[in-house]
Amino acid sequence: MGLFSLYKKNSLIKKAYNLFNQGKYQEALKCYDKILKSDSEYIDAWYGKGVVLEKCGRYHESLEAYDKALELDPEYTDAWYGKGYTLTELERYQEALEAYDKTLELDPEYTDVWYNKGNTLIELESCNEALEAYDKALELDPKYFGAWYNKGYTLANLERHQEALECYVEALKLDPENSEAWYNKGGILTNMKDYTGALEAYDRALELDPKYLVAWHNRGYTLEKLERHQEALEAYDKALEIDYEDSKVWYNKGNTLKKLERYQEAIKNYNNALKIDSKFTYAWIGKGNVFSELEKYPEALKCYNNALDLDNQCEFALEAKENVLKALKK
Predict the structure, then answer these.
(1) Phi first, then psi: what are they for 277, rounded to 5°?
(2) How does pLDDT run along the chain (330 residues), one tens digit per residue?
(3) pTM for the complete prediction?
(4) Neighbour-count burial for 42-81, b at 16+ CB within 10 Å, e otherwise
C-alpha cells in the first residue's frame, strides 16, 4: 500500500467519522463504501460501516459489517460490542449475551458492555444476573446514570422497593431533571404506601414534563389514596386532556366519583372506559358496584355477568354477583 493511498483512506475514515457525528449517515456510509471498494480488508471501515448501519436501523446489514470486521480481526473489541448491541435490537438476546461476554473477555472493564449485558439479561428474565451486571458497571463508574436507573427498575420489579428507592435517589443526584426517574420514584413510594412522598415525586416529574400522561394519572390515584378526591378528579381531567382515549383514567375517575357518591357521573365514566375497551373487566365491576349502591340489582347483575364472561375466576365479580343474587331474593 502506497503512502498516498494510506493517507487517502485515513482521510476518508476521518471524514466518515465527522459526517456520522453530524448526523449525515448516508454520506458517511458512502465514504466507508468508497474505502472498502478499494480495500475490502480495511477493518476500521467495516466497523464504521456497521456503526452507521446500526444507527440507521439497518440491523441485518450492520451485523454483516461487524462480522466482516471480526473475520479480519477476531479480537476487535468494539466490533464484538457493536455486534452484541445489534443482536439485542434484533431481539436475538442469547446471541447478544454471547457477544457481550466475548467483549468482556477482551476488556473486562468495558463499562457500557456491562450495562448493556444487564439490559439483555432483563430481556431474558434473568433479573438477578442483570443486577450483577449493573453492579459491575457501577463499580467501574459510580456516576453511571443508566445503570442506577435500570438497577432501580429491576429491583422494583422484584418488589425490593427500599433498594429500588435508593437507586433512584442516586440516579436523581446525577440527573435531577430526569422526569422518568422522578415518576418511577413516585411509583416505588406508592408501592411502599408513602403517598405523600409519591405525590412530591409525581409533582416534580410534572414540573419537568407537564404533558406526562401517566404522571397525571398516578398523581390522581395518589391523591385519591390521600382522600383528596376533588384534586384527584382534577388530575384525571388533566390526563384526559392529554389522551381522551385512556380507558384506565376514565375507570379511576369513575372510582373517585363513586366514593363521592356522584353515582350518575361515575356510571358515565365507566361507560366511557368501556366504549374504549369493552373487555375492561374492572370497569364492568365498577359500574356494577354503582348499580348495587343504587339498589338497581338487575343492572348490577348484568355488569357482573359481563365481567365474569371476560374472567370467570375474578373473585371480585364472583363475590359481588353472589351479594346481588342474595339481594334479589329478599
Answers:
(1) -140, 95
(2) 444 366 677 788 889 889 998 999 999 999 999 999 988 999 999 999 999 999 999 999 999 999 999 999 999 999 999 999 999 999 999 999 999 999 999 999 999 999 999 999 999 999 999 999 999 999 999 999 999 999 999 999 999 999 999 999 999 999 999 999 999 999 999 999 999 999 999 999 999 999 999 999 999 999 999 999 999 999 999 999 999 999 999 999 999 999 999 999 999 999 999 999 999 999 999 999 999 999 999 999 999 999 999 999 999 999 999 999 999 987
(3) 0.89
(4) bbbbbbbbbbbbbeeebbebbbebbebbbebeeebbbbbb
